[in-house]
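Troubleshooting entry. Yesterday's outputs looked truncated, so today I'm pasting the complete records for two proteins to confirm everything comes through intact. If either block looks cut off, that's the bug. Protein one:
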Amino acid sequence: MKVVDLKSFGRTEDSEPPRKRTFILLLLVTCVVMVGLSFFLWWVPYVGLANIHASLPWVLAFLLGFGVLFCLGGALTLLMTIVRGKNLFFNRKIRGVVIRILFPLLVGVGRCFGLSKDEIRRSFVAINNRLVFAESKKVRPERLLILLPHCLQNHECGIRITGDVAKCKGCGKCKIKDLSELSRRHGVSISVATGGTLARRIVIEKKPDMIIAVACERDLTSGIQDSYPIPVFGILNHRPFGPCFDTDVDLTMVETALASFLYDEADHSERSGPRDSHDGGAPKRVSGPTS
């Protein structure tokens, strides 16, 4: 099997590779804005609060300063996780902060600087993948779900395979056949969704511990947000004919993701002895991201 560097995940043939520095730059700009806004909110009441009690301006300054330092500390921890590709301290929850709070905030900041939504979304998917990888989570095949968009199916196909990939006749005109064979070979579940509503229903029904999702920037972003806290590793599809029409996906990327996140009984038995002091006994990954 050809090994793919996971830092290339999220890259499409018809777009530039998602750059983590876009997300990091927006995060730093947001921190600067936050510091300036906090100073402004402290300075304005300073004039009035001093007339009420001489200590009130300093109490407010302490509270705002604590809040700023807490946020800056969280941002620094996030940056270290992104750079090192490893969880630090309490970073098990940091993915939720990025998904729930930082991403909507950074979208607004990015638009002020003229960045397109898709560019920010690509960067978000790349950062999310980095954080998912940093969690070092291995799952059993029956607990992993491959979720595909319906636009991967050839538009001339007369069989509607939405939801049930087993209906595919294997004509080979699209990648559904290959992906179905890949899922059977690895023993993982696979489904096709026509949109966010069906995708959410599939996730609720199958209750996976992890998802490898193929979609466009918009659908991947919303899927990552909707599925939290379930880890979603996103792979952007290729769109040679435009959006939502006969799209494609790199099978090697999907197979590399499976090899990286699937629990391996043989690997576990080999590591049941003394753990190496350097990696803490953590399972090794296939060509992990570097930056």
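Protein two, checking that the full record survives here as well:
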Amino acid sequence: MKKYILVALAFLTLGTIQAQEKWSLEQCIDYALKNNITLKSSELNTQSQEVRHQMAKNQRLPDLNGSVSQNLSFGQSMNNQGVYENKNSQSYSGGLSSSVNIFSGFQVKNSISAQEFTLKATLEDLKKARESLSVSIASGYLQILYNKELYLIAQDQVKLSETQLTRYENLATHGKIPTGQVYEAKAQLAKDKLNATESQSNLQLSLLDLSQLLDLKEWQGFDVVDPSIDMTSLSLMISPANEVFDYAVGTKSTVKASEYRLKSSEKNLEVSKGAYYPRLSLGASYSNGYYPDLKNMDNTKMSLADQMNINSRTAIGLNLSIPIFNRFDTKNNIKLSKIDVENARLELDNTKKTLYKEIQQAWFNAKTASEKYQASAESVINSEEAYRFAEEKFNNGRSTIYEFNQAKMNLASAKSDQLQAKYNYLFSVKILDFYKGEALHL
């Protein structure tokens, strides 16, 4: 039921689609890079890592803390003359303290470097996400072009069947052929119309798929430009696989992201080793207090200003912390960091091997698609000749309608195979161009 609804929508919206402005591949890619939700999520991950990098850099700054307190005392307490009195008292105090790290086994420096390499890896991940999205859009775009040409072939089949039906009806009217052949022609026309309807439905579905990839709110008026493609020049664009790999391994975001993560792991190992070193820090503090019951020597109440003068306390000092034993935490953290380094190195090797396999596969697909396209082109020429010969025989009464329809279907099948080979060939070449760092375009 769903399929028939989509087919109905296809007929209703066909006129609207052709009236709308068509999108080029470059426009589709540009729009998606700005509006795709998944890509926006990757951008947020990058922003988060930028914050972590900044937090690591801020570890070089001194800290500053303030404190305020109120104290209530009940019972015996010492007054300012050094005499204990049995009474209730209260006091107020406040202070500022600050410390700055001077040396911590280069942990701060290495931590900043580790976060910087992680940030670079995240930026490469974002670039990879953009590239993957661009490839997906190019694939969807080519699928639309493929379905458009299939739909044109289906329409041509309908036109041929309509022409043949008209001819049969005229021949049957004059008694030159049996009426049954008219019904056979009508059946063939109905079949061709069904195939055309299915082709149109597939075209609409491919337009829907691409519009969803672009995150368009409305897709009914969406259509793409039909570019002029010079298939004869594609064979000149196929570079050797090793040449493509040599370029890609030094530039592709997947490899660079793995390289940066390896460097980040190496810096984190240095951070773990830094825990063996002593820590030296500089600290300073200032505090003051106010006691409402504090009195002068003449038993008069001491003012706030006087108390601030005599109760202020300032301190500055160096603190050296020497690690002696911490339950082997440092030793074990170093072991874990070394494992992380080895994992990152293996991941880099695996990324390079995967890239090499992908390029080899893309090159093989391009070469195979090229051969299939050439073979399919010859098949179309031969099928056209076979159809022309079958039509001539049938018109002269030397063959049956089944033989004629079989030649007609063989021609349609050959053209469909040629289209499939054509777009497989085109996509494979564009993928190789992508690995060579070229922008996707038609």
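Both blocks look complete. Sanity check on protein two: Confidence is low (pLDDT under 50) at residues 1-19.
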